Amino acid sequence: MVEAEDQILRRAKEGDKNALGELLLRHGRLIRNGLDINPKWQSVLEVNDVMQVTYFEAFEQITRFEGDVRAFPHWLRRIAENNLRDAIQGLEREKRPQPGQRVQAPENGDDIVWLQDLISGGGATPSRHAAGNEARLLLEAEMDKLPADYGKVLRLVFLEGKPVGEVADFMGKTRGAVHLLRIRAVNRLRERLGSGSQFFSYHA
Protein backbone atom coordinates (compact mmCIF):
# COMPACT_ATOMS: atom_id res chain seq x y z
CA MET A 1 0.00 0.00 0.00
CA VAL A 2 1.35 3.43 -0.99
CA GLU A 3 1.74 5.68 2.02
CA ALA A 4 -0.28 8.90 1.90
CA GLU A 5 1.79 12.04 1.45
CA ASP A 6 0.38 13.65 4.58
CA GLN A 7 1.73 10.72 6.59
CA ILE A 8 5.13 11.06 4.92
CA LEU A 9 5.15 14.76 5.77
CA ARG A 10 4.25 14.03 9.38
CA ARG A 11 7.19 11.64 9.67
CA ALA A 12 9.47 14.18 8.00
CA LYS A 13 8.45 16.89 10.49
CA GLU A 14 9.26 14.45 13.28
CA GLY A 15 12.81 14.17 11.98
CA ASP A 16 12.60 11.18 9.63
CA LYS A 17 15.19 12.03 6.98
CA ASN A 18 14.09 9.23 4.67
CA ALA A 19 10.56 10.62 4.66
CA LEU A 20 11.82 14.09 3.80
CA GLY A 21 14.04 12.64 1.10
CA GLU A 22 10.97 11.05 -0.47
CA LEU A 23 9.13 14.37 -0.45
CA LEU A 24 12.10 16.09 -2.05
CA LEU A 25 12.18 13.47 -4.78
CA ARG A 26 8.49 14.01 -5.44
CA HIS A 27 8.60 17.80 -5.59
CA GLY A 28 12.22 18.77 -6.24
CA ARG A 29 12.28 18.22 -9.99
CA LEU A 30 9.30 20.48 -10.66
CA ILE A 31 10.81 23.23 -8.52
CA ARG A 32 14.19 22.76 -10.16
CA ASN A 33 12.65 23.10 -13.61
CA GLY A 34 10.87 26.26 -12.53
CA LEU A 35 14.04 28.12 -11.55
CA ASP A 36 14.98 30.66 -14.18
CA ILE A 37 18.58 31.85 -14.13
CA ASN A 38 19.24 34.94 -16.21
CA PRO A 39 21.51 33.99 -19.16
CA LYS A 40 24.11 36.55 -18.00
CA TRP A 41 24.73 34.42 -14.88
CA GLN A 42 24.43 30.93 -16.34
CA SER A 43 28.19 30.62 -16.83
CA VAL A 44 28.85 31.21 -13.11
CA LEU A 45 25.74 29.73 -11.48
CA GLU A 46 23.98 26.42 -12.03
CA VAL A 47 20.51 25.31 -10.96
CA ASN A 48 22.13 22.33 -9.25
CA ASP A 49 24.05 24.75 -7.01
CA VAL A 50 20.80 26.34 -5.89
CA MET A 51 18.98 23.06 -5.37
CA GLN A 52 21.83 21.48 -3.39
CA VAL A 53 21.66 24.25 -0.81
CA THR A 54 17.84 24.23 -0.97
CA TYR A 55 17.71 20.54 -0.06
CA PHE A 56 20.11 21.05 2.79
CA GLU A 57 18.08 23.98 4.10
CA ALA A 58 14.95 21.84 3.89
CA PHE A 59 16.58 19.18 6.07
CA GLU A 60 17.57 21.87 8.56
CA GLN A 61 14.18 23.58 8.70
CA ILE A 62 11.60 20.81 8.22
CA THR A 63 10.94 20.30 11.93
CA ARG A 64 9.81 23.94 12.08
CA PHE A 65 7.52 23.66 9.05
CA GLU A 66 3.92 24.18 10.16
CA GLY A 67 2.01 23.77 6.90
CA ASP A 68 0.22 20.82 5.35
CA VAL A 69 1.02 18.73 2.26
CA ARG A 70 -0.43 21.42 -0.03
CA ALA A 71 1.88 24.04 1.47
CA PHE A 72 5.05 21.91 1.30
CA PRO A 73 5.94 22.51 -2.40
CA HIS A 74 5.31 26.25 -1.98
CA TRP A 75 7.60 26.24 1.07
CA LEU A 76 10.32 24.39 -0.82
CA ARG A 77 9.97 26.67 -3.84
CA ARG A 78 10.32 29.74 -1.61
CA ILE A 79 13.57 28.39 -0.18
CA ALA A 80 14.89 27.73 -3.69
CA GLU A 81 13.88 31.17 -4.96
CA ASN A 82 15.50 32.85 -1.96
CA ASN A 83 18.68 30.90 -2.59
CA LEU A 84 18.69 31.87 -6.25
CA ARG A 85 18.13 35.53 -5.36
CA ASP A 86 20.94 35.55 -2.79
CA ALA A 87 23.39 33.83 -5.13
CA ILE A 88 22.74 36.40 -7.85
CA GLN A 89 23.01 39.28 -5.41
CA GLY A 90 26.39 37.92 -4.36
CA LEU A 91 27.51 37.80 -7.98
CA GLU A 92 26.29 41.34 -8.56
CA ARG A 93 28.21 42.61 -5.54
CA GLU A 94 31.31 40.85 -6.83
CA LYS A 95 30.92 42.63 -10.15
CA ARG A 96 30.13 46.04 -8.63
CA PRO A 97 31.41 45.95 -5.02
CA GLN A 98 29.90 48.48 -2.63
CA PRO A 99 31.60 49.77 0.54
CA GLY A 100 31.10 47.29 3.34
CA GLN A 101 29.99 44.53 0.93
CA ARG A 102 33.34 43.02 0.00
CA VAL A 103 33.39 39.31 -0.68
CA GLN A 104 37.10 38.89 -0.07
CA ALA A 105 38.73 39.33 3.31
CA PRO A 106 40.66 42.59 3.77
CA GLU A 107 44.39 42.50 3.13
CA ASN A 108 45.31 44.13 6.46
CA GLY A 109 44.90 40.90 8.41
CA ASP A 110 41.65 41.87 10.15
CA ASP A 111 39.79 38.89 8.70
CA ILE A 112 38.26 37.85 12.03
CA VAL A 113 37.11 41.40 12.77
CA TRP A 114 35.45 41.52 9.36
CA LEU A 115 33.71 38.20 9.90
CA GLN A 116 32.57 39.34 13.34
CA ASP A 117 31.11 42.45 11.75
CA LEU A 118 29.22 40.39 9.18
CA ILE A 119 27.81 38.09 11.83
CA SER A 120 26.68 40.92 14.07
CA GLY A 121 25.36 43.08 11.25
CA GLY A 122 27.81 45.80 12.22
CA GLY A 123 26.13 46.52 15.52
CA ALA A 124 28.25 44.55 17.93
CA THR A 125 31.83 44.04 18.97
CA PRO A 126 33.51 40.94 20.42
CA SER A 127 32.93 40.65 24.14
CA ARG A 128 35.74 40.40 26.68
CA HIS A 129 35.18 36.66 26.66
CA ALA A 130 36.07 36.48 22.99
CA ALA A 131 38.81 39.03 22.44
CA GLY A 132 41.82 38.62 20.19
CA ASN A 133 43.01 35.09 19.55
CA GLU A 134 40.16 33.69 21.63
CA ALA A 135 37.70 35.14 19.11
CA ARG A 136 39.44 33.30 16.28
CA LEU A 137 39.48 30.03 18.23
CA LEU A 138 35.78 30.37 19.04
CA LEU A 139 34.85 31.11 15.44
CA GLU A 140 36.92 28.19 14.18
CA ALA A 141 35.22 25.90 16.71
CA GLU A 142 31.81 27.07 15.49
CA MET A 143 32.86 26.57 11.86
CA ASP A 144 33.67 22.95 12.70
CA LYS A 145 30.03 22.48 13.74
CA LEU A 146 28.68 23.70 10.40
CA PRO A 147 28.08 21.51 7.35
CA ALA A 148 31.37 20.73 5.65
CA ASP A 149 30.92 23.02 2.64
CA TYR A 150 29.79 25.92 4.83
CA GLY A 151 32.82 25.64 7.07
CA LYS A 152 35.19 25.18 4.13
CA VAL A 153 33.97 28.32 2.37
CA LEU A 154 34.28 30.40 5.54
CA ARG A 155 37.81 29.19 6.17
CA LEU A 156 38.96 29.77 2.60
CA VAL A 157 37.36 33.20 2.22
CA PHE A 158 37.76 34.66 5.70
CA LEU A 159 40.70 32.89 7.31
CA GLU A 160 42.84 32.34 4.21
CA GLY A 161 41.68 35.43 2.30
CA LYS A 162 41.19 33.61 -1.01
CA PRO A 163 39.10 35.31 -3.73
CA VAL A 164 35.77 33.74 -4.66
CA GLY A 165 36.99 32.55 -8.06
CA GLU A 166 39.91 30.67 -6.51
CA VAL A 167 37.63 29.12 -3.87
CA ALA A 168 35.22 28.02 -6.60
CA ASP A 169 38.04 26.31 -8.53
CA PHE A 170 39.40 24.65 -5.40
CA MET A 171 35.98 23.28 -4.36
CA GLY A 172 34.88 22.35 -7.87
CA LYS A 173 31.88 24.69 -7.70
CA THR A 174 30.65 27.74 -9.55
CA ARG A 175 31.26 31.25 -8.21
CA GLY A 176 27.55 31.58 -7.60
CA ALA A 177 27.59 28.48 -5.43
CA VAL A 178 30.44 29.90 -3.35
CA HIS A 179 28.55 33.16 -2.82
CA LEU A 180 25.44 31.26 -1.75
CA LEU A 181 27.35 28.96 0.60
CA ARG A 182 29.12 31.96 2.12
CA ILE A 183 25.84 33.80 2.73
CA ARG A 184 24.19 30.77 4.30
CA ALA A 185 27.24 29.98 6.42
CA VAL A 186 27.43 33.52 7.80
CA ASN A 187 23.69 33.37 8.56
CA ARG A 188 24.20 30.10 10.39
CA LEU A 189 27.01 31.59 12.48
CA ARG A 190 24.79 34.57 13.18
CA GLU A 191 22.14 32.19 14.53
CA ARG A 192 24.67 30.41 16.72
CA LEU A 193 26.47 33.55 17.87
CA GLY A 194 23.63 36.04 18.03
CA SER A 195 22.90 38.77 20.53
CA GLY A 196 22.32 36.20 23.25
CA SER A 197 25.83 34.82 22.92
CA GLN A 198 28.73 35.72 25.19
CA PHE A 199 30.64 36.33 21.97
CA PHE A 200 29.13 39.77 21.45
CA SER A 201 28.61 42.87 23.56
CA TYR A 202 26.56 45.67 22.04
CA HIS A 203 27.38 49.35 22.07
CA ALA A 204 25.21 51.38 24.46
How would you portray this structure in words?
There is one protein chain. Helix 2 packs across helix 4, helix 4 crosses helix 9 and helix 8 packs across helix 9. The protein has two domains: 91 residues, RNA polymerase sigma factor, region 2, helix turn helix motif (Rna Polymerase Sigma Factor, Chain: A, Orthogonal Bundle); 92 residues, Butyryl-CoA Dehydrogenase, subunit A, domain 3, CATH 1.20.140. Strands 1-2 form a two-stranded antiparallel ribbon. The C terminus is likely disordered. With 204 residues, it is an all-alpha fold. The radius of gyration is 19 Å and the shape is globular. The chain contains nine helices and two strands.
What is the string of SSEs from the N terminus onward? HHHHHEHHHHE
Give the helix level as a range of percent: 55-70%
> Pairing-aware structural class of the strands and helices?
mainly alpha
Rg over alpha carbons: 19 Å
* Average residue pLDDT: 81
Main sheet: strands, sense, barrel: 2 strands, antiparallel
CATH topology of the largest domain: Butyryl-CoA Dehydrogenase, subunit A, domain 3
Percent of residues in β-strands: under 5%
Number of helices: 9
Spell out the CATH superfamily of the largest domain.
Answer: PhyR, sigma-like (SL) domain
Number of strands: 2
CATH architectural arrangement of the largest domain: Up-down Bundle
Shape: globular
Under CATH at level 1, the class of the largest domain stands as: Mainly Alpha
List low-confidence stretches: 99-103, 105-110, 200-204
Distance between the termini: 62 Å
Spatial strand sequence of the major β-sheet: 1-2
* Integer tally of domains: 2
